[in-house]
Specification:
The complex is a heterodimer of chains A (about 110) and B (about 110).
Chain A: E1 4-7, E2 10-14, E3 19-25, E4 31-37, E5 43-50, E6 55-58, E7 61-66, E8 71-76, E9 85-92, E10 100-101, E11 105-110
Parallel strand pairs in A: 2-11
Antiparallel strand pairs in A: 1-3, 3-8, 4-5, 4-9, 6-7, 7-8, 9-10, 9-11
Chain B: E1 5-7, E2 10-13, E3 19-24, E4 31-37, E5 44-50, E6 53-56, E7 65-68, E8 75-79, E9 88-95, E10 104-105, E11 109-113
Classes of the chains: A mainly beta (about 110), B mainly beta (about 110).
């Protein structure tokens, strides 16, 4: 079974708008990461947030983490058509040596 | 190209046949992971290696699945007696030791079992 679930499953927005995706997970974590996957390709690491952090920024990306609610959100500001992809959260736990991925949010940015 | 390389990109096989996939990680990465991804789902962890040692294999889907990394460089994933339910994308990733924090993925092998 997978650790996380993303919400919404699919999101369609106009270019220039902001996109927000949410991730919920089940157990205590060390780190939470977000990955992006273009159709038919491998995943690309976007950003990592540690369990003792609450917010992190990288370019147009903003990630928040609420460990009390076991949830995270990814905000992409000023979206571009090239941001069209699936986005996955992934978590690792103490003593674990692998990542558990969520079910993903499929983002479509309309030019 | 210094990224993770997987071969073949696509594989079509008949039910009951054996298939083998290859993964070449980034050269300085000593950790190598295999994941499976079905349509509309996130990657599902299968197994991982640190150098040539397979440190976690309890999540391999059945005894028909096996993986090797004989010299601590490239890895192979074999599926014996394939079933239609094995149809999926098989992804390989690598990382530096202690760096579960960031995995580098290959483009995957798409398996179709007819």
């Amino acid at each position: 079974s997978q650790q996380g679930e993303e919400d919404p499953q699919a999101l369609s927005i106009q270019e220039g708008e902001n996109a927000t995706m949410n991730c919920s997970y089940k157990t205590s974590i060390n780190n939470l990461q977000w990955y992006r996957q273009n159709s038919g390709r491998g995943l690309v690491h976007l950003i990592l947030i540690r369990s003792n952090e609450r917010e992190k920024h990288s370019g147009r990306l903003r990630v928040t983490l609420d460990t009390s609610k076991k949830s995270s959100s990814l905000l992409i500001t000023a979206s571009r058509a090239a941001d069209t992809a699936s986005y996955f959260c992934a978590t690792d736990s103490a003593g674990a040596n692998n990542l558990f991925f969520g079910t993903g949010t499929r983002l479509t940015v309309i030019p | 190209d210094t990224g993770v390389s997987q071969d073949p990109r696509h594989k079509i096989t008949k039910r009951g046949q054996n298939v083998t996939f290859r993964c070449d990680p980034i050269s300085e990465h000593n950790r190598l992971y295999w994941y499976r991804q079905t349509l509309g789902q996130g990657p599902e962890f299968l197994t991982y290696f640190q150098n040539e040692a397979q440190l976690e294999k309890s999540r391999l889907l059945s005894d028909r699945f096996s993986a090797e990394r004989p010299k601590g460089s490239f890895s192979t994933l074999e599926i014996q007696r394939t079933e239609q339910g094995d149809s999926a994308m098989y992804l390989c990733a690598s990382s530096l030791q202690g760096a579960i924090e960031k995995l580098f993925f290959g483009s995957g092998t798409q398996l179709s079992v007819l």
